[in-house]
Write a structure and sequence with these properties.
The chain is α+β, with helices and mostly antiparallel strands. The protein has 5 helices and 5 strands. About 35% of the residues lie in helices and about 15% in strands. The chain has a 5-stranded mixed β-sheet with strand order 1-4-5-2-3, sandwiched between helices. Strand 4 and strand 5 form a beta hairpin. GO terms for molecular function: peptidyl-prolyl cis-trans isomerase activity.
């Protein structure tokens, strides 16, 4: 059974600190408290591009991934190049992503075919290919998840304010 990964936008700093060798329990507690307060207030923050330079993170400097994004009527932007007004519910979007994941795992179709046919992201035109993501510019939960996948590994459904995502690391 698959599970949904819900990643608040503010969690990037916590994840970077966890993977870094430059952290301690006190600094993690401060960050967690700030994230909790910001979440309750509905405040979302993103770091400047240079913020990640303070961290010494292990792993590859870049990864290449594909994405399928299914938007729903509560998405930040409930429209796409495919549909002027997206009316599907969040649950319908989740069900679609879960079905796509099942089809890919059972080799009934390919990630690229599903992305081209259904994804609400412009990357759909390239089979969902997001190109190379660099570690030094990690700015979103999807990028954090992408770096945690092994080559060829398919993510669980990922929920963000944009919609429901499925990520495949290809390099």
């Amino acid at each position: 059974m698959s599970r949904t990964i819900e990643v608040p936008e503010q969690m990037y700093e916590m994840e970077l600190m966890r993977k870094s060798r430059k952290h301690d329990a006190a600094s993690m507690a401060v960050v967690l408290k700030e994230i909790t307060i910001n979440s309750k207030l509905g405040i979302q923050t993103l770091p400047p591009a240079s913020a990640n330079e303070d961290y010494d993170i292990q792993g590859p400097s870049h990864v290449q991934c594909r994405q399928i994004l299914i938007k729903h009527n509560k998405s930040t932007r409930p429209y796409s190049f495919r549909e002027m007004f997206i009316t599907r519910t969040k649950q319908e979007a989740m069900d679609m992503i879960k079905e796509f994941r099942r089809q890919i795992i059972n080799e009934e179709t390919t990630f690229e075919e599903l992305a081209c046919t259904y994804s609400d992201c412009l990357s759909a035109k390239k089979g969902g290919d997001l190109g190379y993501l660099t570690r030094e510019h990690i700015r979103s939960p999807l990028e954090i998840i992408s770096f945690n996948l092994e080559v060829g590994q398919l993510s669980e459904p990922v929920e963000t304010s944009s919609g429901i995502h499925l990520i495949l690391r290809i390099n």
